[in-house]
Amino acid sequence: MALGGRAGLRVSRPVRDQQAWDMGCLDDLIAADHRVRQVWAWVESLDLSAFYDAILTVEGGAGRPPIDPAILMALWLYATLEGVGSARLLERLCRSDVAYRWLCGGVGVNHHSLSDFRVEAGSMLDDLLTRSMAALVAADIVGLDCLAVDGVRVRASAGASSFRSQDRLVELEDAARRKVAQLRQELQSDPAAGSKRTQERAAREAAARLARLEAARKAAKTIEEERQREAEKERRRKPKKAKAPRASTTDAQARIMSMADGGFRPAYNLQFKTDPKSGCVVGLEVTNKASDRAQLMAAIEEIERRHGVKPSRLLADGGYASKEQIEQAHQAGVEAFVPLPPVKETPVDAEPDDKAQAQAARDKAKETPGVQAWRERMAKEESVAIYRRRFACERPHADARNRGLQRLMVRGLTKVRAIGLWHVTAYNFLQIQRLTPQAA
Prior knowledge:
The chain has 440 residues and is an alpha/beta fold. It folds into three domains: 84 residues, no CATH class; 165 residues, 2-Layer Sandwich (Nucleotidyltransferase, domain 5); 89 residues. Helices cover 50% and strands 10% of the residues. The protein is built from 16 helices and eight strands. Strands 1, 4, 5, 6, 7 and 8 form a six-stranded mixed β-sheet that branches. The protein has a two-stranded antiparallel sheet with strand order 2-3. A hairpin with a 6-residue loop joins strand 5 and strand 6. Helix 1 packs across helix 3 and helix 4 crosses helix 6. The radius of gyration is 28 Å and the shape is globular. The chain starts with 34 loop residues before the first helix and ends in a 5-residue tail after the last helix. The mean pLDDT is 83.
């Protein structure tokens, strides 16, 4: 009894040291219409042969049986829907939360198995995205004729202070290589077992650091080459950015990008392709390019690779307004609905600049047929109405943000792509439940 209780008061108090049997069925603790049942039913309908084929333990053979891939698939799908993105947190929930316990069904899981499966499932999720959308296209639920393209930048796991210039990376790499050589020499000369194990651990850590520094140096060199190609393409004598290229020693594939709040941070660019008709995401690619200007043709190529057809219309915001990309899309038979660049306003009392007008007229005369068609198209009211359908692609972005896609806890394009595919799978799962009530 807490402080303040008077003598002789009768209340029901907890008894926690009494031995008792709790008889019950785990299935009775979950309501019939609970979302976790829908997740499990949907996972059971998937083809997980790629994971089952990798299992070597069979009836009558030796070896400990692994966790059923369907359990891991259902756990991560339900966790993504609930905004859980940590393998350690998911492990704890599998012991304390009844919905996660119901999915496990008495099977023990650990955060290592959960973390490994989340990344390894990336290729399967990519194939699932293609097959599931192809089935909906065949049922005339999803369309591929008009698609919206947009990118969302997600904060990378690397810190801003981990970026180093190429010269500094070379120095750090040389120092790490000398450290690795020194530790290996000590391992060969010292026979003591205890100290040898400590030195082996130090050697592994030094080798891992050396590998990260090598990757960062190569990334810095790649950035420098990309800047040089861009300068040659735009006929500049030197790259536009005068600062020396820098790469992260933590995540060599992350790049500094302009974020939605106006700041600059290490991030990745997730490119969503959405069907405005159904709201489903039909394609996803992850890039470390800070600009969207070169992503129009990449979107067309991805849809053609996944579904064997090209969209006839592509809706994108002003960040995709690259004349070269628009012309290439025109040559491919795709109409780009991208806003025209803003026109500089001339003061009312200013005299008309004949030279500027003449130069603008000459520039327009040199424009390619695709760019001219784009200008004429976007000047019409009906084209602006079509473009407004692009805002349907903002919903998957908001859904992923609300479910925890604020900052990535993994490193590298492959792992980041897997995380993005988990969010796309969770979002499309909800859309499928809405669009096909018979599936629910």
